[in-house]
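Batch 3, record 17
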Amino acid sequence: MTRTTRLLLLAVTVAAATGCTPSGDAADPDPTQAAPTDQVTTQETTPAPQGTPQAPVAGPHGGEPIADGLVTPPGTVLVEPAQTVSQGDVTGWWAALEVTGDDLDAVADDLGAQLARAGLQVQIGTVDDVVVVRAEGVTGQVVRHYDVQVIPAGQGLPAQVQILAAAEPAVAP
Amino acid sequence: MTVAVAAATAAGAFALRDVEQDWARVVTDQGAHNLDLAPTPDPDPAGPTGPEVAPTVAEQVTAELAATVAADLTAWWPVTATAATTGQVACHPGTGAPGRVQVTGSGPDGAVRVDLEPAPAGTATATVTARAQSPCPGHRLARSSAHPTGAPAGFTATVTAPPTGPGKVTLTQVTWSRGDVLVTVTAATADGQRTPDRDLVAAAVAAVDGAVLAALAPVCPDLAPTAADATRNPAWPGYTGRRDPLAVTVPPVPPVPDPDAPDPARVVPQVPDPAPVPDLAPLLPRPQGDQPGPQGEDEAGDPWDGAARGPAPVLVDPAAFAPAPQVGDPGREPVRPTAPTTVTFHVPAPDPDGPGCGWAFTGQDAPGVDVDELAAAREHAARQAIADATGARARTWVATLDWARTWPRWAAAKDAADQVAAYEQARAEATARWEQATAAWQASVDAWLAGPTPTDPDPDPGDEPDPDPTPGGQP
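Prediction for the assembled complex:
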């Protein structure tokens, strides 16, 4: 199943989005139990304990740290380290990667897997050749949002990844 | 009157032309009929007396221009003598290029000088701008205004020369640039007249500008370089090399749905219902023969007892309004942030031809290209573009998420403020109607006391004053 046949922002399972080399790390799912990467299913993630912020957990491939536990997927380099931005009750950060390889789907899947392992509900889809990974979850009293766009090369720019993250209080004041 | 004109050349901008002190002194000292139009000496030893080199395009063009301007001078300025020479035309050494020429003319009504000064490729506009801020040493810039002729860059300045002669000389200068040539027309007064004839200055500027454009059009690819083009020239202090702007599309910001309007919450009491107020029922006129004055006004009770009264007005008692709650000003409605659609970055690029009239115009060599350095610079620019676009999206997204949280709060505050405003408006209207009814009741009492009105024994009820809101109806 190709990326373009996926429905926009379909939920995928944690295992489906792994795309990492198994290392026996207890934090990684058993690859033998992982669903095929093109399988589109929805998995209920375990809610994080109330009041316990839970950051995404990186996979075992040992990429360069980005922020919030995320690391660069294979075939990417960090262009801009995480920069924080905030306004009002919302805080966030952003980072930019350059894709050095050819498999943009693998990059999206790896980041999606990292976010899913952190207990976030992950959705992956394609919009105009841009692979979009969105994740959201509630940890404690904080709603966390992630938006990852894997953009093919164009306009004189190499293929790139734009990672946006934001957190806001779960209850509006 | 003596008038003098100076012109200079430079790349891409108009600059305040410096007027030599001795030239101003000549104008002042010798008067209009005996102007010394000799060019000022060229301080550059490699200038006219330097080694023989092939003339540059700039030198050829300015030489031809000098001849044209000198020949046409009498058509736009009342002169009897002209001269065209190479000479010093700037008080800012080092900003010009070979090919500087000066055309002067004088006659009974004045003198004019045109300076044509080539500038290094792409630097004319920036040079003009710099000179506008920094006139020649010893000159005071009395006033400056935008160029009146529509040149890409230029200004008009009035300069007061230093008092080296019998008195000061006020010079009017118009400086601008075309391509890589800086042009200055200078007019000065003598015989005590301080302001040159503006029509003559305007005629001189128009004529010179037309001649410069005609001469440069065949040889100058860009007749209107920008001030930023100077950074393409290694001779300019802020040299960066050619950097082409490239606009990159910013991907859409993650969707943030419009927030729901808050559920309406009533914050003000109910407006009291209207009710008849018998005490404010107006008195009807007394019949003929009745005693004037109220019945038993010295006794307790209603002094108007027994008087015929009209219908009681139906009013809202202002005293029945409860105090409205205090609410703050909701302020201006938060506006949903908008994301930039593009970010522009600048990509280093080879520059074989050069800005303005090009490297060849003034005989300048094109800057060398380091392929590796260029590639590294382009990679850096691309990374910066990626970072800029990502940052722009992130800032807008965070701002939009915050907006989605703040807008409902504003909407609730706005609704509360609207409710209070409506409640207070209802109170104000009730008060006004009550006061009207009270006034009408008082008018009816006055009419009753005055007795029947012969001219209006049976007044139309519709002409009766409105009932009034004074509770109790006592006058």
